[in-house]
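Subject: for your reference before the review

Hello V.,

The reviewers asked for a structural picture of the protein, and I figured it would be easier to keep everything in one thread rather than splitting it across files. Below is the amino acid sequence we used in the manuscript, unchanged from the supplementary table.
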Amino acid sequence: MNWKQRWLPALRRRVALPITSLQLCLLAVVGGMLAALLIILFRWSILGMQRLYLIAADDFTSLDSTIRAGLPLAAALFITVLCLLIGLRHYRLGIPFVIHRIKLRYGMMPWRNTIHQFFGGVAALSAGFSVGREGPSVHLGAFGASTLGSYLKLPYNAIRILAGCGIAAGISASFNTPLAAVLFVMEVVLREYRIHVFVPIMLASTTGALLTRNLLPTEHDVTTIPIISLNNWHLPYLILMGIALGVIATFFNKSLMRTMRTFQRWHLSLRLTLAAVITAAVGYLVPQALGAETGVIHSAMSQPDVVGLMLLILLAKIVLTVAALGLGVPGGIVGPVFGIGVLAGTVLAFLPSLIAGDTSTVGTYAVLGMAGMLAATIHAPLAALVTVMELAGNPELVVPAMLVITASYITAVQFFQTKSIFLLQLDFLQLPYKLAPADDVLQKVGVLAMVQKEYTLLDNPSDALILQALDEAGTDKCVVVRRQYAVDQLLELASYDVSLSMSGESVVRYQPIHTLHFQATMAEVFEILGEQRDGAVMIMSDEVDNQALGLVRWEQVRQLLMRQNNLL
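And here is what came back from the structure prediction:
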């Protein structure tokens, strides 16, 4: 007996339950390591490419203007060729696609899409497109951890948790923000808080951060921004600043969606070419706006008092980001939003700096602008707050950040009725991301946690033998009839039917038994039995000659739903 036959059955039964367990936590650590290694390889690839032509990583200002204009065009050509080789139908990437797969496919990521995301993301980020690395990080992290679950053939509910663990490890490995990564997964991706999910995701995020700190430079550009405490007279102005950020975020979201709708019928190669042309043209005039967020942060901190230049870079950054993401360049949105927020905060710091007579508070306003912009764009206020706290490392920002985040979020949601940019993209792409309440409950429980091994199996029995088995089984034990035919077999659940016996017909009722793979959840059982509200399914293993592991009955589905918010 090998290790799979010895240990895996017990492991699968344990993680099929929606409870915190040592086994799931250990799997989260391993999954977090796999995800973090993929992100580290991804970042190494970008740094290696940029070292060929840049003096400093993500700084395109020192690059010759001809090369700077040619890089986006070369990257667009590479991504197009890659797409033709792998297939256009596999070109669904980024955080919206991951949210869809988490909700509808238990977080299992197709490998072809992942290849697109890895190499396309490296090309886009190396060439100066205004996209972030967190989009590929989320995709790659979910792929790495969910692949572990698929290899071990864990229940689908456990694979979904592992995918969340991989996402957290990926974000943590990208930005060195382990707590913010956990909150991002719970608030944006999973959109729920469950303790049995929170603990393994927290462990995976910690693993990703620890692994990255030993293999990559961990200092983020935000840590170089000088931050000082603000006096109380700044607080009323911070509310106005939050309102302004809410307006900017709404304009950004709507512009991005308008671009996607306008060019949706264009072939991907044409869209990528247009994005490259816009990036080359704007980057030729305003090179500080190229890349994710590094260039604009350095520009904002080096010349914070040149308001006209900051406004120009801000507008250029919005145009470049809308063009890149709206036209299909593979990459994330959070990095550029960081940059837009820093620039907006720097511009909005002009008035208090003018009143105070110095620019010492510009750094603080820049970081607060990043927090407000992130909260209003992706609708994750808590994740935005913790991200800023971890990146800035200054607890004095808590109260000012809360004011800015609250004002920006309420402005975007209540006054402009805008949704999270990820949900807007999901709706546009027609990727479902919502579950019915019953499915939401049942997908958290694997069938292995509910399977009943005690049942009577009869092969081609006579009616007398079936009646005898039913009498002996009572109410607690099922009787399964297997009828063998020339090429296949039929499984039926035998039971007494009192209503038929009153009319003189046979007192035995036969219901077909469908089969399910042992990785399934109770949601799949509900899908099969939900219409007739009766019967059972047989759980099968494909590892030992299609062995039957046991039955799951409708009564068990009903009990689960009754326990959870009286959903039935």
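For the response letter, the relevant points are probably these. The beta strands are 455-459, 478-484, 489-496, 508-512, 514-517, 536-541, 547-553. The domain at 223-429 is CATH 1.10.3080.10 (Clc chloride channel).

Happy to draft the paragraph if you're swamped.

O.
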